[in-house]
């Protein structure tokens, strides 16, 4: 996979030679459409990268060049240390041939799940053009994360304002992603804090369409998320959700589905599989419910 033999540091390779070799080890982040690119490295290659990152590169005089080599090398190492260790990155998600969404994903800190993009949002974004009502008055997304679904909705329905919401530690990055994609949504996407557990953050506005992608991974989530939907969804409005069928959360999913059945009438549902960052093929269930 890496046929060229990297230079021995004792031969004092030039900045350009060394930098090019390090960059050859780059692994592209997964795009959720196919299994992740293999990132296997032989023990010799690991050893070489570690030698470079720990070398003082004394023969390279320019400090900026040294920094570039150390930074690139440490990124090539962290790309292979699992999704949790990945450095911050900006990825392009191709939703349709004519719609690409760029998302900044900061490096993962303090278990903030909303700082990365989850497979459910990719699957739902690709379905949205078939299932979105034609002219929603006002769209709310709950637990937007990096914003893929909300930004796709805003691009597909340019006349409908979309409000993306999440916890305080997530919203700044959503604002950044709204700015990054300004040309596709034309300014119709906004973001603010909305904590399902804190009613004072819900606001008084109501919506005729609410969307949630991968929102169920704690026993509190079915009831707290659905209380927000009950309060903010107008009668006649639509609630679209999607979630992965993770064995670990089977009882939470059952609880969520039982509650939705009592609250709404179902208008559509289905299952799809896709790849996620963890390189598994995952099964996702989506549904469309109406508040009558
Ligand atoms: C698994 S992530 C999914 C993110 C995004 N929807 C996606 O599919 O990529 C779950 C999201 O729910 C948000 N969340 C969890 N608890 C929440 C709460 N109490 N209030 C608001 N958002 C919450 C998290 O911050 C995170 O962004």
From TrEMBL:
Name of one Pfam family that matches: Methyltransf_16
Methyltransferase recorded as keyword: yes
Keyword hit for Protein biosynthesis: no
Keywords: Methyltransferase, Transferase
One GO cellular component term: cytosol
InterPro entries xrefs: Methyltransf_16, SAM-dependent_MTases_sf
Coiled coil, from the record: none
GO molecular function annotation: S-adenosylmethionine-dependent methyltransferase activity
Residues of the signal peptide: none
One of the protein's GO biological processes: methylation
PANTHER family, sorted: HEPATOCELLULAR CARCINOMA-ASSOCIATED ANTIGEN, PROTEIN-LYSINE N-METHYLTRANSFERASE EFM2
Protein name: Protein-lysine N-methyltransferase rrg1
